[in-house]
Amino acid sequence: MELLSLDKLAARMTPGSLIAIPADYSGVSMAATRALVASGVRGLRIICVPTSGIQADVLIGAGCLAELETSAVTLGELGLAPRFTAAAKAGSLTIRDTTCPAVHAALQASEKGIPFIPLRGLIGTDILRQRADWKLAENPFADGADPIVYLPAIKPDVALFHATKADRDGNVWIGRRRELATMAHAAVRSLVTVEEIVDVSLLADETLAAGVLPGLYVEAVAEAPRGAWPLGLQDLYPTDDAELARYAEAARTEAGFRAWLDRFLDGRSAAA
Amino acid sequence: MDKALTELLIGVIARQLEGCRTVAIGASSPIPGAAALLVRARTGGALRVLMLGSRKHNAFTDGGRELFDCAAQGRIDAFFLGGGQIDGAANINLVGIGEPPRWQQRFPGSFGSAYLYFLVPKVILFREEHTPRVLVPQVDFVSSPGTSEAGIYRPGGPQALVTGRCVFGFDAPRRRFHLASVHPGETPASIRAQTGFDYDAPASVPITESLPPADLALLRGRVAGEIAETYPRFAATLFGREAA
Q: CA-CA distance, A19 to B224, in Å (whole number)?
């Protein structure tokens, strides 16, 4: 495992990279998001696992993305994600609509190194109709007809997320947020930001070890205290609801979004 | 937020959950969440509540996949879905209106609807806004269909549509809703005027029942504190409560 600065970690993601990011409740690296925006990178492709909020919205608004595959982008109780919505209306971003279990299942296919995975549901939806890469097939083991959809495996170039701690071997503690493990297993490599680097091995303690993503999957780690802000992180700190509300309001216009982003890039709250 | 209406809706949804053992609550669903926690409190925990975004009411430990895997196995009895548009055949649209890539109107996205609608036996459609804009003759985009052809694997589907004005039941073989009750202040005629799709209505339609006083006290007390953990703004606005 390499221990990198946030800027060097962000530089590992280049135009065309397919990056898996987790949902707001899981462990979102807003610190790496800030570094990506600051780097001026363009043409990133994002797969939301399985949805996103402010992270995808900021990357869209800052012009970093060429493509977004997602089950939803939303600010939750604060309503629509404004930059996502604006891009969808302008047609300025390739949006591939999917559904939550399809993302999880297609990542599981990559975990197993198999080319596709079948999934129930989907038949008769316009989601399926729009996805030329999904195939309506037959259950080969059924006695009669049993149509079922086959999804190609999703193999991200990078799994990018934030967690509470990593050790010197690149082992990362994720607790019960097992979708982070799925993302990391499926991806070619994981880039992780953490609240702190600890000197003792996280695998030494059997209680901790069950919640560890082994360093086997982790290419690089950057230390980023409060790195999920303004989102929250597990038991460490709650979501900054006031800041999210300021974002939701500001990002309704391009100018408001730019003003919010300038402060965010400086690591400051829009209230400061 | 209309407090009396919100409490009425929580009561309506709570009644829909009677007899369920396990209910899952998806994203952005404070009213279904409060209803589920109310039934849980009232039944002494007989209803298991799995609420996305909650720490205290979410027993999953295997990541985002677990809810969906449980649903496919038949372990989830009830779930809630909404829609930017809902039509008379219970098709729902959570994605948008217009032709991509230039959406005329864009909603957040389908979430798990294109899967869970097929697999969870009791799906309760919930959308507070009841206008011809939302309840349309035909959705512009089918995030998930209300019914499926014979031969498609589908143990699940819609049981009811609850809105801010009324409750509809769903008749799957006929692919049509029927008016089950109207909320106080509404009439069968006012519902007809605000609904963009056709549906059946009996000669006499009952008024939606309010929560009994004991349940209302439970909701405003214990349940208000519990829902605040996941939906702080909702709980603060409705009950003036912080997380318990």
A: 39
